[in-house]
Design brief:
Its EC number is 3.1.3.3. This protein has helices at residues 4-13, 21-25, 30-37, 41-52, 58-69, 73-82, 91-100, 113-122, 157-169, 181-184, 203-208, 217-224, and strands at 16-19, 104-112, 130-133, 135-137, 143-146, 174-178, 192-196, 212-213. By secondary structure, the chain is of the alpha/beta class. Helix 3 runs antiparallel to helix 4, helix 4 (41-52) runs antiparallel to helix 5 and helix 7 runs parallel beside helix 12. The chain is globular.
């Protein structure tokens, strides 16, 4: 197992950095915000709490929650325009600095493509670098399910995305940054995991992560040291 010093060196020399989105790059959880917007916030929050207990697979939990929300295309677009996702302080500067260093930045999320692409746009991240779940709609705009073939729809999906990135781009060192257990589980194949607790603290992650931060300034400082 790598020491903290070794993890910091991997981060400073990484050729790709993957960020989780909900409660990491943005301050809120996209699915909870969508549920509130569609009037089923409490019921979905309860379902999320049960899912966090680990007794249900990620896909089963996602299916159940979306089955309750049943968001239309119009509702998703209205959520983005009326309540746009709030960027976490420091993320804009960190992504900009990584880009300046020639590091590829990816958003790897169990959230929804349309919301994550909106976030990517604000951070100058190409939409090709977004891996997230795709909602499906009938031609009249009504909810028609989600694309179950996306790796992010499955437990262990973030690790599959990193494996795919390494194979496609031949990255030597890939870093994963996030607040949740699914982010931590992506290393390996990721080379370094950085736990983030700036918006919400998941005790399991805080206790097990070798490197745990609460503000993105901590990572900016690491980059300035080189």
């Amino acid at each position: 197992m790598a020491s903290l010093m070794e993890l910091k060196e991997i981060f400073r020399s990484a050729d790709a950095v993957c960020f989780d989105v909900d409660s990491t790059v943005i301050r809120e959880e996209g699915i909870d915000e969508l549920a509130k917007f569609c009037g089923v916030g409490d019921a979905v929050a309860e379902m999320t709490r049960r899912a966090m207990g680990g007794t249900v697979t990620f896909k089963a939990a996602l299916t159940a929650r979306l089955g309750l929300i049943r968001p239309s295309y119009e509702q998703v677009q209205k959520l983005i325009s009326d309540n746009p996702p709030q960027l976490t302080p420091g993320i804009r500067e960190l992504v900009s600095r990584l880009h300046q260093r020639g590091v590829q930045v990816f958003l790897v999320s169990g959230g929804f493509q349309s919301i994550v692409e909106h976030v990517a746009l604000q951070l100058n991240i190409p939409t090709a670098n977004v891996f997230a779940n795709r909602l499906k709609f009938y031609f009249n705009g009504e909810y028609a399910g989600f694309d179950e073939t996306q790796p992010t729809a499955e437990s262990g999906g973030k690790g599959k995305v990193i494996t795919h990135l390494k194979e496609q781009f031949h990255f030597k060192k890939v870093v994963m940054i996030g607040d949740g257990a699914t982010d931590m589980e992506a290393c390996p194949p990721g080379d370094c995991f950085i736990g983030f607790g700036g918006n919400v603290v998941r005790n399991q992650v805080k206790e097990k992560a070798k490197w745990y931060i609460t503000h993105f300034d901590e990572l900016l400082k690491e980059l300035e040291e080189r």
